[in-house]
Design goal:
Main location: mitochondrion
GO biological process, one term: mitochondrial translation
Subcellular location: Mitochondrion
Keywords: GTP-binding, Mitochondrion, Nucleotide-binding, Protein biosynthesis
Radius of gyration: 28 Å
Family: Belongs to the TRAFAC class translation factor GTPase superfamily. Classic translation factor GTPase family. EF-G/EF-2 subfamily.
Shape: globular
Helix content: 25-40%
CATH topology of the largest domain: Rossmann fold
Strand content: 25-35%
Length: about 800
């Protein structure tokens, strides 16, 4: 076996991974930074696959969907598992980079312990990189600066951007090695200088399996100088966090930066990384097979095991959760309690519905009886499998910290994305021995679903196709909850809503080609909403049968991040109603304050579920201006409601409450409704000479609100950013011609960064216009900001559409 593959060989594929040697990580980045290419090389060098696939040829392991192969992009996250450094197991999820598939990133980082952020050495820190960095803020990270072989690649420029834009200190693990060949006009990227192990690592350009490792301390003068300065910077940065390292440096190493052993440095880097004090940085060129093995070493050396990761957040703040070296996140001090989170659902043509789960606590066995704490339903665990992209290995047990898949009809009927599953680790039907008030009701905090902003109308070609269309749409939204289906009873239209035009395009492809739905699909439209202004009167319904229910409809702040400042009474419980910032607010009942006092045969949770369902349906029916679904509204139920003592069927509560809520909405005057439209955060990078025409187009034709115009850095000058800009300037970095070019660019060619907010309606098909204004030299990125009220002038044109 070659040196390259021997690097991570000598592995033992243990059935039960040792928790401290397990790594659950994700690959995150801007689109086209090289995530899938890097993942493919990781699989090859770990010995998991015997040949390297390429994105352009459509034969990579993790991009296996037909649309991924044809488009050369990642659409859905894919999980793979492999070993490195003898017996360390790495569970890796390759995530999409396109903004339309941001939910794939959100639900992946929810269950991961650490992340590898891949940066394009030519493009630097791009807009989507900043977004996924924020989405994974709870996870320690390492950075891999990819594409160092490309013309215009700038390692030092990219590191400076990383420090200044992400507000992080860096620990340079290696720096690029360039060699000048007689036949090359410019130096060729050949490998890395390993600052920790003091080695020069050079990859053979003709054979990716051949690596030459030499001692950096005996290399040329230039390499020795970079080694010394790099180690000096590394030790001084780590010394701000690790006093023991400084003590060793002064007393044992006598102030010699080269005498600090790699083992001590690695331990210090690991501690600082887990504390999110530094971000380790490595470089390479994955397509040229350079730098991947040191990256794998860094994953094992610096990213957390499940025993070092953040504890899962649950709905029981007082429920004790602690880390156990054998059982993972031990909950309620119960070693027999097994808790897992379902974070993804897919439909396999052979195995059917498959539910991806992360085991947080305890051990999961096939055949056990489990409990869905979100729905209150019991079901049987069927088969368990470990994923390797679209190939699956059947196992009998999933251990703490593992990512696996549940398969079977009962799972398909009882589990959805975001559900928490509870079972007994030892007994097949041991739910009775679990604490019904705390352990059977524990829920890991749900996965946030971003709101859809585009819609298309979906109609069956014939009336006989309606049932198959509804089934196909159900499968589609089950797999991807960021897709949303709504039905307008007045117009008879079914609308499918998603995150963007590409998102809906892929959904349409799956609907027609994979789910075989015989449907007609309309053009893409912007998703508008309505909301109410001011308090509305209460509505009450009562009957001789024993029902009494009083509700009111309340307005909420439009932006969800401002909900925290809303005065929430301690006598209320808030239940989110999905994607439109709507809530059900239940006042604490004056009679039924404890479970022992509950007099009805129907359970309290069943009543709540019925009220949630009826609230969602009623609010989706829309307001009085254009029947757009209601947004940022709360259905508040007073605490003096009563039910018939003999009630058993939740459908009765559902029917009654739906009618009451619809009545409450219908009695709101029309002048208290407003139309909302989605507004996007827009980040533009444009040459200075084109800036005027771009801004004129934005303010004139796009109704944009320009927030800021910055120079090359694109960084806001608040106190924290100023601090990290200073750190970026003082950070040791090897010579990089692109830094000088960036700083000394001519007035016409230097880049400007524009931040703006713009209505989504005015940005449809903006790509062609922007390309024309900048002759292809600029780039832009949009991200959903929130919903804003439409003024009267715009309202008339929207309604005329």
């Amino acid at each position: 076996m070659s040196i390259a593959r021997l690097w991570g060989s000598l592995r033992s594929y243990a059935t039960k991974p040792e928790l401290r040697k397990l790594r659950n990580i994700g690959i995150i980045a801007h689109i086209d930074a090289g995530k899938t290419t890097t993942t493919e090389r990781m699989l090859y060098y770990s010995g998991k696959i015997s040949r390297i696939g390429n994105v352009d040829q459509g034969d990579t392991i993790t991009d296996f969907l037909p649309q991924e192969k044809s488009r050369g992009i990642t659409i859905q996250s894919a999980a793979v598992s492999f070993n490195w450094q003898k017996d360390h197991q790495i569970n890796l999820i390759d995530t999409p980079g396109h903004a339309d598939f941001t939910f794939e990133v959100i639900r992946s980082v929810k269950v991961l312990d650490g992340c590898v952020t891949i940066l394009d050495a030519v493009a630097g820190v791009e807009a989507q990189t900043e977004k996924v960095w924020k989405q994974s803020q709870r996870s320690p990270k390492i950075c891999f600066i990819n594409k160092m072989d490309r013309v215009g690649a700038g390692f030092s420029r990219t590191v400076k951007e990383l420090i200044a834009k992400m507000n992080t200190r860096v620990a340079l693990i290696n720096i690029p090695l360039f060699v000048q060949e007689p036949q090359d006009q410019v130096p060729r990227f050949a490998g890395v200088i390993d600052l920790v192990n003091m080695k020069v690592i050079e990859w053979d350009p003709e054979d990716c399996d051949k690596i030459n490792v030499t001692d950096a301390t005996t290399a040329g003068a230039e390499i020795q100088e970079q080694l010394l300065r790099g180690r000096e910077s590394l030790i001084e940065t780590l010394g701000e966090y690790d006093e023991n390292l400084i003590e060793f440096f002064l007393e044992e190493a006598n102030g010699d930066y080269l005498k600090v052993p790699p083992e001590l440095l690695n331990g210090s880097i690991r501690k600082a990384t887990l504390a999110k004090f530094v971000t380790p940085v490595l470089c390479g060129a994955s397509f040229r097979n350079i730098g991947v093995q040191p990256l794998l070493d860094a994953i094992v050396n610096y990213l957390p095991s499940p025993l070092e990761a953040s504890l899962p957040e649950t709905n029981h703040p007082t429920l004790p959760v602690k880390l156990d070296p054998k059982l993972g996140a031990l909950m309620n001090n119960n070693k027999n309690l097994c808790v897992l989170l379902a974070f993804k659902v897919i439909t396999d043509p052979i195995r059917g519905i498959m539910v991806f789960v992360r085991v947080y606590s305890g051990t999961l066995h096939a055949g056990n009886t489990a409990f869905n704490s979100n729905t209150g339903k019991k079901f049987k665990i069927g088969k368990l499998v470990i994923p390797h992209a679209n190939v699956y290995e059947e196992v009998s047990t999933l251990y703490p910290g593992q990512i696996g898949i549940l398969v079977g009809t009962t799972v398909a009927e009882n589990v959805s994305t975001g559900d928490t599953i509870v079972t007994h680790s030892l007994k097949k039907d041991g739910l009775r021995s679990l604490d019904s008030k705390r352990e059977l009701t524990v829920k890991i905090n749900p996965i946030a679903i971003p709101p859809p902003v585009f819609s298309v109308c979906v109609e069956p070609r014939t009336l006989g196709n309606k049932k198959s269309m509804e089934d196909a749409l159900g499968t589609l939204t089950r797999e991807d909850p960021s897709l949303h289906v709504s039905f307008d009873e007045e117009t008879g239209q079914t609308l499918l809503s998603g995150m963007g035009e590409l998102h809906l395009e892929i959904a349409k492809y799956k609907l027609v080609n994979e789910l075989n739905a015989d449907v007609e699909i309309g053009k893409v439209m912007v998703s508008y909403k309505e909301t109410i202004d001011g308090k509305t009167p209460e509505e009450t319904i009562s009957s001789d049968a024993g029902y009494q229910l009083t509700v009111s409809i309340l307005p909420l702040p439009l932006h969800e991040d401002t909900l925290d400042v809303v005065a929430r009474s301690i006598h209320e419980t808030w239940y989110p109603l999905g994607i439109d910032n709507n809530y059900l607010i239940m006042e604490n009942h004056r009679k039924y304050t404890t479970e022992e006092l509950w007099p009805f045969q129907i359970s309290f949770q069943a009543v709540i579920n019925a009220l949630i369902s009826s609230s969602i349906v009623a609010l989706q029916k829309g307001g009085k201006i254009a029947r757009y679904p209601l947004h940022s509204c709360a259905v508040k139920v007073k605490g003096d409601w009563t039910l018939p003592p003999d009630i058993e069927n939740p459908a009765e509560v559902l029917k009654l409450s739906r009618k009451l809520i619809l009545t409450a909405i219908s009695n709101i005057p029309q002048d208290q409704f407003s139309v909302l439209e989605p507004v996007m955060d827009l980040d533009i990078s444009v040459p200075q000479k084109d800036m005027g025409s771009v801004i004129q187009d934005l303010t004139g034709s796009r109704n944009a609100n320009i927030l800021s115009i910055d120079d090359e850095s694109g960084i806001d000058n608040n106190d924290q950013n100023i601090e990290f800009q200073k750190i970026a300037q003082e950070q040791f970095l090897p010579p990089d011609p692109t830094v000088k070019l960036a700083n000394l660019g001519s007035e016409g060619s230097s880049m400007k960064f524009i931040k703006a907010q713009v209505p989504l309606r005015d940005m449809v098909s903006y790509t062609n216009r922007f390309r024309s204004l900048t002759q292809g030299r600029g780039s832009f990125h949009m991200n959903y900001s929130g919903m804003d009220k439409v003024n009267k002038d715009r309202l008339s044109s929207i309604l005329n559409e």
